[in-house]
Predict the structure.
Amino acid sequence: MSQDYSVVNFDKLTCAGNLASLDSVASNPHYTFIKSDICDPVAVEMTMAGCQTVVHFAAESHVDRSIYDPAPMIETNATGTFVLLQIARKLNIEKFAHLSTDEVYGDMEPGTFAGEYSLPQPSSPYSASKASSDLIVRPYVRTFGLPAIITRASNNYGPFQFPEKFLPLTIASALDDKPLPIYGDGKQERNWLHVQDHCRGIFAVLERGRIGEVYNIGGADVVENLTMARRLLRATGKPQSLISHVADRPGHDRRYALNCEKIQRELGWKPTISLDDGLRQTIEWHRSYTKWLTEVRGGHYRTYYQKYYENRGSSLHAITESGRKPTSYLAQAIPQPRKATTYSPRTIVLFLCGKNAPRKPQAARTIRHRQRRLLHRSLGDQIPAAITRLRRNPRFVFQQRRSHESGSPACQLGARFHAELAQ
Ligand code: DAU
């Protein structure tokens, strides 16, 4: 990590997040980790205070999961972005990069490429939530003057990618001599971008990008899934017979492809890692990181794999047939009416929002409270380092205040900070 930057990594560590991927930077003095949720404004504000730049990578990012359960997508990707923007605005953040995706452009016609001004036409709950977040960023630039920039990247691949995405899943399956699941006819096309090229693109945008602009960041190659699977089997020395066509993803987009002339012309960025080299390195990485792979493919991943692959027919049936039940916590939180109401055949229901709207269910509040306690515990660990940094700042002046020991965890944390600073 460059000595010029200090990085605070704020992550909820949901299914795809994994601290073991960050071992190499964990003890770097320029790096701090905070486990929390971008939907929690208190946690976000406490973390963002004192930072100059925000890079908003946080997202529920898997299309298949969004089809089975859209609620976390909308919550994290749309509401979470709103929370970050509000706090960034309040704290006068100097630059805010919002990382979006080529999926917001939806299905491209054969042979065409999406430019930054192509219309958002999302197809899945995931891409709709990302398109929504892009739209939420725009008024923060135009109306509130927040210095934000949006990037839209194509399909990433490389080391440490969670094996729910196509490339790590197929590489891991091939190395284990297991079938490679290909959705539908496998003729869908994706635009592959090595993660290091993506990171260089983000740096270029942060350093030289124009405020309020959108920049596409795409790889040089647009490849059919089936062709990619065949290529991986050749590269791993495994038989082509491992290819296994499975039921298609509902609403599956056929083609994503980005036109990246703008970032090349304005910022001089273009991908540097060829698909051949990138795939070779990624396969090598999978061969050497077997411990990491075994760990991430245990526990919850087993259940995920069973539901999405081994029992694909029945689980897809449950969401595509009429009478399907939403599976999210939001759906469960809605109290069922005590008595079923019988409506006449032409009834219109009006949903109105007012002061007496039902409050959040107790369970949700308890979870938030627990989450916040956890955050305060981990923030508490950061106090000595924060004080050392403050004392090094020549402009820092300490003013003694009367402190309160009681109150919310946030007050207690503040009081502890104050007391340690006063020593
Ligand atoms: O394009 C950028 C997007 O790329 C990101 O915004 C998303 O977060 C990321 O998940 C990815 O979306 P895709 O749906 O394109 O990626 P995924 O790896 O899930 O699938 C790539 C293609 O491979 C897609 O056409 C579906 C297909 N596929 C995927 C899986 C997981 C299969 O045929 N079999 C599989 O098992």
